[in-house]
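Input sequence (69 aa), recorded before submission:
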Amino acid sequence: MPDTSRITVEELKKRMDAGEDFTVIDVRKPERWQQSDTMIPEAIRVPLDTLEQNLPRIAKDRPVVAYCT
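Predicted structure, token format:
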């Protein structure tokens, strides 16, 4: 299994602003998406319970960041 780590929102923004390329996956439940003003540009929305079926949508050539609440 690849290395995993946690990063803060601030660290992610800093790294994105510096030009790092990530695939961001928003794994919040649809109800949370609708209730939130927080939308990450270009994030792939995939409820956690359907992650396995959606694996083909996730790029394998760059780091992946999962966003959850």
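Checked by second reader. The first strand starts at residue 23 and ends at 26.
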